[in-house]
């Protein structure tokens, strides 16, 4: 007899909440299913240019194939060609993307439909250089400014209630 809990499903904010709940339940039963491993290979392309190749990752012990390139450059003022974002911009973008996914998922699970969610982050070399140290200490970036979207306050309330 199957005694699994029935999971209600709806797509809210583009998120399949039923599938997300299944992932959450699966990881709650077996934390190894939530383990991730990420790898990239960086290739110098001359001057300040480099390309990072993403081949795949492992999630819960399962290989997930990927095949794309992240192109990296520096501004003209720093010896680059200014054709692509620089490493600091990618770092800030990655931080913001992680926060967006978290906010959207929590809001979606609670049935909150978002019209817009925007995160603006800025940093200087001092801030970016210490970002990894702050992450190890469990702190976020100090120079982070979130939008004043009406749904943002509700998103923060939902996330803080989960802590």
Textual characterization of the structure:
The chain has 163 residues and is α+β, with helices and mostly antiparallel strands. It has two domains: 31-84, no CATH class; 86-163, no CATH class. It has four helices and seven strands. A hairpin with a 2-residue loop joins strand 4 and strand 5 (62-72). The longest helix has 23 residues, at 87-109.
List keywords for this structure.
single chain, 163 residues, alpha+beta, 2 domains, 3-stranded antiparallel sheet, two-stranded antiparallel sheet, 4 helices, 26% strand, globular, disordered N terminus
In terms of topology, how is this protein built?
Elements: E1 11-12, E2 15-16, H1 17-29, E3 36-46, E4 49-59, E5 62-72, H2 87-109, E6 119-121, H3 125-137, E7 144-146, H4 150-162
Antiparallel strand pairs: 1-2, 3-4, 4-5, 6-7
Helix pairs in contact: 2-4
Short structural description:
38% of the residues lie in helices and 26% in strands. The protein is an alpha+beta fold and 163 residues long.
Spatial gap, N to C terminus: 35 Å
Global mean pLDDT: 82
- Strand/helix succession: EEHEEEHEHEH
Domain count: the total is 2
Shape: globular
Helix content bin: 25-40%
What Rg is obtained from the alpha carbons, in whole angstroms?
A: 19 Å
Within the largest sheet, what's the order of strands?
Answer: 3-4-5
Task: State the helix count.
Answer: 4
Strand content: 25-35%
Structural class: alpha+beta
Q: Point out poorly predicted stretches.
A: 1-6, 132-147
How many beta strands in the DSSP annotation?
Answer: 7
Q: Outline the biggest β-sheet.
A: 3 strands, antiparallel
